[in-house]
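hey m, so remember when u said the tokens were messed up on ur end? i reran from scratch. heres the input so u can diff it against urs
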Amino acid sequence: MNFDMAGELVAVEGIETTTVVLTDDVASASADQKGKRRGVAGMVYAFKMAGAAAESGKNLRDVTRIAQKAADACRSIGAALTPCTVPQAGRPTFQIGEDEMEMGMGIHGEPGVWRGKLRKADEIAEKCARCS
């Protein structure tokens, strides 16, 4: 919503903008509901690719196409070992034990897909590899 509003504001000044939609968070919706997924870490790659394309002199349409292609190729999942503190809340949004982890937590503290005892990285990577 904020990005759309910003685009509308600068359009009044004659500045053209485009939008790149990120849907990389495999924990936020199933593969058949990919359009409902959140964007999380994939934005870093999309932004880097967009910046490189713009720096090389590509036009806005090509920069957008390249950024969207990068975004579409990304998959991510959040892992929480400590509570999330959203700046507006000013305090942790949930509690988690020192020996626990939560997989799939969103960047604003949205609940994950499971919470349990800490697991080894190899076990977590194997589970994540099955997500698409």
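this time it looks ok to me. Helices lie at 2-12, 42-55, 60-73, 121-129. if urs says something different then somethings off w ur setup not the seq
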